[in-house]
TrEMBL record, chain A:
Transmembrane intervals: 21-44, 50-69, 113-135, 141-170, 182-210, 230-252
Taxonomic superkingdom: Bacteria
Full protein name: ABC-2 type transport system permease protein
Source organism (scientific name): Paenibacillus cellulosilyticus
Chain coiled-coil ranges: none
UniProtKB/TrEMBL annotation, chain B:
GO molecular function, one term: ATP hydrolysis activity
Any matching Pfam family: ABC_tran
Organism the protein comes from: Paenibacillus cellulosilyticus
Keyword Iron-sulfur assigned: no
Higher taxonomy: Bacteria, Bacillati, Bacillota, Bacilli, Bacillales
PANTHER family associated with the record: ABC TRANSPORTER ATP-BINDING PROTEIN, ABC-TRANSPORT PROTEIN, ATP-BINDING COMPONENT
UniProt entry keywords in alphabetical sequence: ATP-binding, Nucleotide-binding, Transport
ATP-binding as UniProt keyword: yes
Coiled-coil annotated residue ranges, if any: none
Domain spans labelled ABC transporter: 26-259
Protein's UniProt name: ABC-2 type transport system ATP-binding protein
């Protein structure tokens, strides 16, 4: 069975590879985004050296790294799941002796590996050439960041799954998926680091899973959070991963009794 | 008695359907307070299917066929009632249960669109944990039977419907399931592929004892395959039994068409069959007439009266009862119980015809 799951990763990877041309434009779009935020932050900093604990150099690196991390963990599983529910093809998934959500996770991971190798890595090289990004030199930071990146993928995927599964309960969850995308980008700290949020909001963020996707790992990678506290960050990610399993399983169970296969 | 493959008791499925109110005002109201109405798709049905049987499951669109199949395969959770398939309660032990069944949805592909057929099969082998040797053996057998040889390396999206459907069948059988559910397996296929698939299914049933439950709108599928028919209407079973039974029960008589050498009158014809109760004549034009006789009257008796007379007969055609007509009549009447007049329209030109030339 494990080999079947590995196959789902492999097949999705190969499929993405077949459509890789679509992603070349993505690299450029990400580079433009990073550039826009880079210049915006330059303007905000003006002649100040430190804002909310970030130096200009740290901020540049933060912007580049968080966007590139997004290139990896981002996926459209919410849309895929919602579409399969809406057009009824989820029925076909349920006649197979596997867990539908596990298969979706594997497919998402196949996409993630593709994005890492053909999107994030080349994108990072380009960004490093264009902007003054300073990457850490300690291999330990790199190692722990890779693990955190994997958890960022898991948590983001879990949120996507939850959003997608809502298609079982509402006729059209398009609006919800868009809202989710904006919320994840904003609250995970891709757009603005959470340290810049007003006090009450950044406190609220401590109780939400979003910052575990981008802000916390990127803070470790840019050196704002010292390596000694990195284990705590990883712990937060693991806790969110486990906690998010609960609503997913509950939603899934509720959905099974409500399932109404559309189109006969 | 053989073990039951499918055992269904008072099975019911209700759906909550959202009511959309009309107009802008309605849309606004819907925004704040949704109205739902309950739709009962399957209403307390009960039936058993023993192992090794091929059973046809028919009914109009929306009669609840697909919903039943989806409950039997563990996709939908029943609202109430008992359900055991292969000894499992499908929706409770789904992952274990589905290993023993095969399912084909005529209107949905279960192959992976972007990869080659053989890759799909390989993936299914892993999903169902079929040992390599068994897989090889079964694949070779199925490929030969359904003549898939040259299709195996094509991507699924490049297959024609007929080719795809044959591949779907293989996909549903690779793990040697003991029960096969087919939801409109021949929809949209040409007659050659249909025949091929029917032959194949018959063979599967004979050699491996596979229990087959199929829904279809093509009654020829039923005639070719099924020893038993379950007919559904508006969520209820209105007939459960043999196909021949269905025919003889709901066909009330036959029609014999005559072509005469010279013009005849209805009165003349009526006098010929005087004394045979229920026989009636309709004159189609001067030289052609149709005699309708109820089942209680022997065809030979009625024929003898006409042939033995002095009328000049050019041709005689006996119109056989046709399942399509019977089923259509039952559908239209809503229930097999109440409808006896169903038998009114029971002829068909493709059926047996005898010719007598004078």
């Amino acid at each position: 069975m494990m080999s079947a799951y590995v196959d789902f990763i492999r097949i999705r990877f190969l499929m993405m590879l077949a459509y890789r041309v679509n992603y070349y434009s993505g690299i450029i779009i990400y580079a433009i985004n990073i550039g826009a935020y880079y210049f915006l932050w330059q303007a905000i900093y003006g002649d100040k050296q430190v804002l909310a604990g970030f130096t200009v150099a740290q901020m540049t690196t933060y912007v580049a790294v968080s966007w590139m991390a997004r290139a990896f963990y981002f996926n459209n599983l919410d849309r895929e799941i919602a579409n399969e529910i809406r057009d009824g093809s989820v029925a076909v998934q349920l006649i197979r002796p596997y867990s539908y959500l596990a298969v979706k996770l594997m497919q998402g991971f196949g996409e993630g590996i593709f994005r890492l190798l053909l999107f994030m890595v080349p994108g990072m090289v380009i960004v490093c050439l264009l902007f003054p990004v300073s990457l850490p030199t300690d291999p330990k930071v790199w190692a722990i960041y890779l693990v955190m990146l994997f958890f960022a993928f898991l948590i983001n995927t879990q949120i996507n799954m939850l959003t997608g599964l809502f298609a079982f309960f509402v006729e059209n969850n398009e609006g919800m998926m868009r809202m989710k995308r904006v919320i994840v980008d904003l609250f995970s700290g891709v757009v603005v680091p959470i340290a810049f949020f007003p006090g009450w909001l950044s406190v609220a963020m401590n109780w939400l899973p979003f910052q575990a996707i981008t802000y916390l790992p990127t803070a470790v990678f840019t050196g704002r959070t010292p390596l000694s506290e990195a284990w705590g960050v990883l712990g937060v990610q693991v806790i969110w991963f486990v906690v998010l399993l609960v609503p997913i399983l509950l939603t899934w169970r509720a959905a099974r009794t409500r399932l109404f296969v559309q189109g006969g | 008695m053989s073990r039951l493959a499918i055992d269904v008791q008072d099975l019911r499925k209700q759906f909550k359907v959202q009511n959309n109110r009309a107009g802008l005002g309605g849309a606004l109201k819907d925004l704040f307070k949704r109205e739902y109405r309950e739709v009962t798709a399957v209403k307390d049905i009960t039936f058993q299917i023993p192992q090794g049987e091929i059973c046809g499951y028919i009914g109009e669109n929306g009669a609840g066929k697909s919903t039943t199949i989806k409950m039997l395969t563990g996709i939908l959770v029943p609202t109430s009632g008992q359900l055991r398939v292969n000894g499992f309660v499908p929706h409770k032990e789904r992952e274990k249960f589905v290993k023993e069944i095969g399912v084909v949805f005529g209107q949905r592909s279960q192959l992976w669109w972007d990869i080659g057929v053989i890759e799909s099969f390989q993936l299914l082998r892993k999903v169902y944990r079929v040992p390599e040797a068994d897989f090889r053996r079964r694949l070779d057998e199925l490929v030969e039977r359904l003549q898939l040889g040259e299709l195996l390396n094509r991507p699924v999206r490049k297959l024609s419907l007929g080719q795809r459907m044959r591949c779907e069948l293989v996909a549903s059988l690779l793990h040697n399931p003991s029960i096969l559910f087919l939801d409109e397996p021949t929809i949209g296929l040409d007659i050659i592929v249909k025949t091929e698939i029917r032959e194949f299914l018959k063979g599967m049933n004979k050699e491996h004892g596979t229990t087959i439950l199929l829904t279809t709108h093509d009654l020829q599928d039923i005639e070719a395959l099924c020893s038993r028919v379950i007919m559904l209407d508006d969520g209820r079973i209105i007939y459960d039994g043999g196909l021949e039974d269905l025919k003889s029960r709901w066909s009330k008589g036959r029609e014999i068409k005559f072509q005469f050498g010279s013009a005849v009158t209805t009165d003349r014809l009526r006098t010929l069959t005087e004394g045979l109760t229920g026989v009636s004549w309709t004159l189609e034009n001067g030289v052609e007439a149709a005699m309708w006789l109820p089942n209680e009257i022997n065809v030979s008796d009625a024929l003898a009266r006409v042939v033995g007379s002095s009328v000049d007969i050019r041709d005689i055609k006996i119109m056989e009862t046709n399942t399509d007509e019977i089923v259509r009549a039952i559908y239209q009447s809503g229930s097999a119980e109440t409808k006896a007049a169903a038998a009114a329209a029971l002829e068909d030109d493709t059926a047996i015809s005898g010719a007598a030339r004078s």
